[in-house]
Amino acid sequence: MSFKIYTKTGDKGETGLFGGARLPKHHIRIESYGTVDELNSYLGLLRDQMKEEELKFFLKEIQDRLFAIGSSLASDPNKNMITPDINEGDILVLEHSMDDMDQTLPALKNFILPGGHTTVSFCHIARCVCRRAERNVVALHEIEPVDELVLQYLNRLSDYLFVLGRKMAQDLNAEEVVWNARK
């Protein structure tokens, strides 16, 4: 017996949460976990650019955390669903990694424009998608409770992706593109 990926249950613009509830596909909950899924895909693309195995492993760990966030957001909030969680240690790992990278980077004196190298640009795209995911989850949190650690993790992850972009520019000897305001 084979499993079919299509169910036809979403043909009229609704989708199901884990736990059975159905929501319109434009609901902020669906936007939230859909954007987290999009971010996870961009992180896969970013990970595919990396040569350093330790960094590839770290990005895979972040993808695992994003999958946990997605499963939490895709679960019916009115049922006590058991889903993987995010903990304070996950946030601390991002902070420590940023601190380590920052020690090797020049002081930030200007705004940085995305670009300089494809890998750096992928970091910035992922950062922007992460910020959108965070905005969506904050909007969801205004109408239904969301674990505060999810909000913190997404906030810290976007910061991490910015610092990673700077670090990648340094490691790849790529120009860090500085924004200069017109005078």
Give a quick rundown of the structure.
This protein has 183 residues and is mainly α. It has helices spanning 28-49, 53-73, 88-102, 118-143, 148-171, and strands spanning 14-16, 22-24. The protein has one domain (23-75, 85-171): Hypothetical Protein Ta1238, Chain: A (Up-down Bundle), CATH 1.20.1200.10.
Structural write-up:
The relative contact order is 0.15. The longest helix has 26 residues, at 118-143. The mean pLDDT is 90. This protein is mostly helical and 183 residues long. 59% of the residues lie in helices and 3% in strands. It has a single domain, classed as Up-down Bundle (Hypothetical Protein Ta1238, Chain: A), CATH 1.20.1200.10. Helix 1 (28-49) runs antiparallel to helix 4 and helix 4 packs antiparallel against helix 5. Strands 1-2 form a two-stranded antiparallel ribbon. The protein has helices at 28-49, 53-73, 88-102, 118-143, 148-171, and strands at residues 14-16, 22-24.
